[in-house]
Write a structure and sequence with these properties.
It contains three helices and no strands. It has 182 residues and is mainly alpha-helical. Helix 1 packs antiparallel against helix 2. The longest helix has 86 residues.
């Protein structure tokens, strides 16, 4: 009988050890599951933080491009306006172009500050974590400017007296009498 009791004792100890290992593994699995959940939460938060930082960088880049372009636009408008003023001595209708140029510059000035304020508000919302606009990651690269297909659009139309074709006709007409007179 002594051998049978040893076998039962031995199997009981093996069973207790197996249960102990199972309980330890279950505890480790629970601990690992909790650690995985914590790491996933930190990873998700870090991704959100980086996305917010990227969007903030994109917004700042957009603002910088707008301010640089506006800064470059003002002297060009001023120079063009002065040149047009000189042209009005020869072509009085040039005042129309100058008026149009001034109205375009005024319109740009009137919408530029609100646009920059809106960009600042969007950036503040991103910083606060309230919103992350869906911006393409290539916003740092200025997209190419595409002209509208409609050539009759007001910004692309010049008065008839500025047309190159009309000036070419005048030149040809002026040259024709000379050639027949010679």
């Amino acid at each position: 009988m002594f051998g049978k009791d040893d076998l039962v004792d031995h199997l009981s100890r093996d069973l207790d050890r197996a249960r102990g290992r199972r309980d330890a593994l279950a505890s480790e699995a629970t601990t690992l599951t909790a650690q995985i959940a914590e790491i996933e939460a930190r990873l998700s938060e870090e991704k959100k933080k980086r996305e917010r930082e990227r969007v903030l960088g994109e917004i700042e880049a957009i603002k910088t491009r707008i301010m640089q372009a506006a800064g470059a636009f003002a002297p060009v408008v001023d120079g063009l306006s002065r040149a047009i003023e000189q042209a009005t001595a020869v072509v009085p209708e040039a005042r129309e172009l100058n008026s149009f140029l001034v109205s375009v510059a005024s319109e740009i000035d009137s919408v530029l500050d609100p646009l920059l304020r809106e960009l600042d508000q969007r950036a503040d919302a991103v910083r606060a974590g309230q919103a992350v606009p869906d911006l393409p990651s290539s916003a740092n690269e200025a997209p190419p400017v595409e002209l509208p297909n409609d050539t009759n659009e007001r910004l692309l139309r010049f008065p008839a007296w500025l047309s190159r074709d009309k000036e070419a006709d005048k030149t040809e007409t002026a040259e024709s009498p000379r050639s027949t007179a010679a």
